[in-house]
């Protein structure tokens, strides 16, 4: 019998409802696609035109290799998409980023990550994940926490350089190009 | 020890990979939001204007009460959003419906169902579910299978009658109004 | 011979390029659909959820009747859609509204106004107009100028009351319901 | 005095209402942005995934140079966006193309063409034009008429080759990349 079930009736309330033990998360990842939200931080001018895109530079815990990524995280059980997006923005950008969350939760794209590389543009060795992806203007100061080492602001042109696109984790070079297309900033 | 794990090494290949035992599904539903796709079948004229909306009339197995709903189903592990949408359209509309799947997988809305009624417009007693919702023109003949008793084609005006909106399962009256707004058919 | 053509070679530079004389505008309106932008001002909470919608209350110069409308104006010759949207927001909401312009210029809906009432939900006696319609969060203080008498902030529920919907100019009750559907605020 | 005004009261009914004389069109183009619709024909598989994109190959009447473009045309006075889109698809693809018009008239992008090259990615020497751009699956046989010489079906990969992108009229290489991003077919 699994411990978390056996203990359910006696343990104190979970301080992080929706969070799972490593074992439960791994088991769940083998069973269903996991729902994520991703946010691409941008700086815009007074007309709403994108001036800079924020990419997180992250070091792999196992290989030490550096890769670039977006704000990203799971939607937990019982949590709304908006709550998950704001929680992950605050986790990755800090409390003073002042993100402007979208007024509609329709994402600009849906990203499908499969465990095996090569079957689709996007992959994630840990799981089959489906992410709702949003562009999020931020007006404040960003101070990445946790495992992200650095937030780099780049112009659309800099982001589109092959070097940067190649550094993006899990094939997200495709996603950032989709975002720039949506923003009318491909050229 | 759970049977499906114990048997995994000896049983023949799973004919429905991605499908879960009742126990595994129930356990998973308590852990993470479950990803769904929903399709709203429509008949359109040569200009793309919606003429009729297809609603499934379904009887509850437990209470016998009738309710109306859309094509709906889980995205299974390893399955793409497009595959899940087509599979569920064929399941609910039959093999001769000839649905025109959207060329972009950006949904017109994201529907969030919570287990408790009242906390949000949409609810699903079984689970926290998040659905990508699409409008799907169909040109062929629809022959609902499985537990759906009947597919009814209604004009937008008929769909918007309070009687029909109230019959819709889980609060989907809101969703169908969102769909008609998106289609420019609110009036 | 038209005066503005005769004078073109001698007059000083036009302070408002893109603006037309009344005669030229009326003639143009009889020839082609006129491109507009419309902005629906909203107040959102920290999660992006709409809390209030801003409607402009305007008195008709000819009949004295009151009607409600959005921020609205022509895109002038040579002007970008973003420039037109910002210019009209500043004209109707004043210089301290601090509108957050959309990062993508894809509108949430396209509104078609025809000169004759009854042929379509939207009409405009002056012209055939096609408007790109945006939802625009504003964070500052709004001080309507020009012919708008008052900006009223209403909850989505208040906006959806039949009384308010009926007061909306040119059939825009349909548009505001489309906006609330897009924002997930129909209920 | 202009002839078309003088003749208005005596001439027989206009067989093409909405069409303008060359002089009236040129004058109008100097006054307001002209509203266009554009359609990008695609072939999709049973899952809605784009397999081929249709590009029109057109010879310039003046220079003889070849260029590639989309289905494109003005929205005329009194004409709905849907009617304009279908009319132009039939004009450029012939009567047996069987285009599947979008069920929503929200375009996937808004394209702004300015008369001067260099100020924006898109330009049109004749005018300031604003186009609502749609992806349109076609299932029938296409027989271009009028000035288009040939319709070429290409895979997304072929379309994205620098050679093809450079051949596209008025900077539409940007537009076709936006379309492929929207369709999830950038890679």
Automatic annotation (TrEMBL), chains A, B, C, D:
SUPFAM superfamilies: Nudix (SSF55811). Pfam families: DUF4916. This is ADP-ribose pyrophosphatase. It comes from Aeromicrobium erythreum.
